[in-house]
From TrEMBL:
Signal peptide bounds: none
Highest taxon, organism lineage: Bacteria
Keyword Hydrolase in record: yes
EC number: 3.8.1.8
Name of the gene this protein is made from: atzA
Native organism: Microbacterium laevaniformans
Top enzyme class: hydrolase
Annotated Gene3D superfamilies: Metal-dependent hydrolases, Urease, subunit C, domain 1
One example GO MF annotation: hydrolase activity, acting on carbon-nitrogen (but not peptide) bonds
Keyword list, A-Z: Hydrolase
InterPro entries, A to Z: Amidohydro-rel, Metal-dep_hydrolase_composite, Metal_Hydrolase, MTA/SAH_deaminase
Protein name as catalogued: Atrazine chlorohydrolase
Domain Amidohydrolase-related, residue spans: 56-437
Length: 506
């Protein structure tokens, strides 16, 4: 099967033209870009897509998200990460989500992502109280049917909650402490065995489109042997190792309280940073941490909307760029950002850092944010040889935008309009591996209406469960609120809050 896109406006994100729109034709055969240039002719059997009023760009790589949170969209506000986690990832009284519901949840999340122009998902799937093979298989099955590309974890927490957050035990009632301490956490051996089985079962499924990744939750949430074991296993399978690092001030204080300093230097000291590793968030890093991350070839997924909503702080975009850290962009899950629309994230990344300093030369450029949303994300996902730019030999994962829309009216600089004007409503066609998965803005690989109808039938059951767990976990909230207040008032090595004038905190 072959396709010919004729004379479109094309943003290739290749090393030479970057995000500059050029008029080009693209020929795709067997899922791969076989030619891209100015004066190409179609082959007789090519299916022709006229490109005259269209913009073609690489599909977005959502470098950090959690499909698990799909059912939590629009549920919480004004909670900092540690308190929000107690709701979204209940500490007390949780029970297993059935695989059919996992599949439905994943399908709905994948539909919304594809319609938003996301062709690659880095989906860090956290099941509570723990993930099993049936649940993991349901995620793979859903994405196989949808036709999206994905790295799918494998998320694990293997230290007791109370050892991962500073001061919390002091502030929680004794019976709650006892209950949390009695909760099962998987051993390092159990997780590494699970991961090896998952690699064997799923890695490279769907013609290489679907890959397993290891995902230790965070350095403070896992045993050192698990961190190093996961890092080594990712390298063995040429896969991603995905981990949350220094998302909040509380985590900075956790490093000081429990690891004698920075969590990044702790990871480096035990060999838990590698070129296949992506740190989600990476906000509260020192300059030295940034050098360490860059030297290890480790990537960071920047997730500005989630960071804004949870009040986590503002990542040091320019300092990270200057240090040479590869950056991707992510939405994070639908409980902390309420949407998998990468275009929202792209626009926020382009805007947010302009108010952090007056020197205009330091502000993010459209070229930089589009690179982070495509090729940078692909690099972080260990997929930069495969996707992230439109180049001969790469897989045809791309989005075709209709330019006859208000977002592109009047037509000025299409790269700037993609970042600042477009919200996804101009998306016409989405291809993954050369296969059309979205046409006319609608997903054609699964029945969205049927999936939403199935959800409607089960919504009462889902919300009753969430309400029950929220109520149960209210028991930890006052204690976590006191912990949060104390941690955010503790002096630390850097300040990433905007407008926090308590200079003594640094
Ligand atoms: Zn996350």
């Amino acid at each position: 099967m072959s396709t010919f896109i004729r004379d479109a406006h094309v943003i290739t994100m290749d090393p030479i033209s970057g995000s500059t729109p050029l008029v080009r034709s693209i020929r795709i055969a067997d899922g791969v870009i076989v030619a891209i240039g100015e004066h190409l002719k179609p082959d007789p059997h090519d299916e022709i897509i006229e490109g005259r009023d269209r913009l073609v760009a690489p599909g977005f790589v959502n470098a950090h998200t959690h499909s698990w949170e799909m059912f939590y969209k629009g549920r919480y506000d004004n909670l900092p990460l540690e308190m929000w986690m107690a709701m979204s990832y209940p500490i007390l009284g949780d029970s297993r989500v059935a695989p059919d519901l996992v599949r439905l949840r994943t399908t709905l999340f994948g539909i919304e992502s594809l319609k938003a122009g996301v062709t690659t998902l880095v989906d860090d799937v956290l099941e509570t109280p723990g993930q099993d093979h049936e649940q993991l298989a349901a995620v793979f099955d859903a994405y196989e049917q949808l036709g999206v590309r994905a790295n799918i974890s494998g998320h694990v927490i293997n230290r007791p909650f109370l050892d991962t957050v500073p001061f919390a035990e002091e502030y929680l009632p004794d019976d709650v402490v006892r209950e949390i301490r009695s909760a099962h956490v998987p051993s390092t051996e159990e997780y590494l065995r699970f991961a090896r089985e998952a690699f064997a079962a799923h890695h490279g499924r769907a013609n290489g489109r679907l890959r397993f990744m290891v995902a230790p939750s965070a350095p403070q949430r896992c045993e050192p042997a698990l961190l190093t074991g996961a890092t080594e296993m990712a390298l063995e399978f040429a896969a991603e190792c995905h981990i949350h690092v220094l998302e909040t001030k509380t985590q900075l204080v956790t490093g000081d309280e429990s690891y004698g300093g920075s969590l990044v230097s702790y990871m480096a000291s035990i060999g838990a940073l590698s070129p296949n590793t992506t740190l989600a968030h990476g906000i509260w890093l020192t300059d030295a941490d940034m050098q360490t991350v860059a030297a290890a070839g480790t990537s960071i997924s920047h997730n500005p909307i989630s960071n804004l909503k949870l009040g986590s702080g503002i990542a040091a975009w320019r300092k990270l760029q200057n240090a040479g850290v590869n950056l991707g962009l992510g939405t994070d899950g639908c409980s902390s950002s309420d949407s998998p629309r990468m275009l929202d994230v792209v626009k926020t990344a382009a805007l947010l850092h302009k108010v952090t300093e007056p020197d205009i030369d330091q502000w993010p450029t459209v070229a930089e944010v589009l690179a982070a949303a495509t090729i940078g994300g692909a690099r972080s996902a260990v997929l930069d040889d495969v996707v992230g730019s439109l180049e001969v030999g790469k897989q045809a994962d791309l989005v075709i935008y209709d330019l006859e829309t208000m977002a592109f009216t009047p037509r000025q600089k299409l790269d700037l309009q993609l970042v600042y004007s477009e919200n996804g409503s101009s998306i016409d066609i989405v291809m993954v591996q050369g296969r059309v998965v979205v046409a006319g803005g609608e997903v054609i690989t699964v029945d969205e209406r049927a999936a939403r109808a199935e959800l409607a039938e089960r919504l009462d059951e889902i919300i009753e469960r969430q309400d029950r767990l929220d109520e149960r976990n209210q028991a930890v909230m006052p204690g976590l609120a006191r912990m949060y207040e104390r941690a955010t008032s503790t002096p630390g090595a850097v300040n990433r809050f905007s407008g926090d004038e308590r200079a003594w905190l640094v």
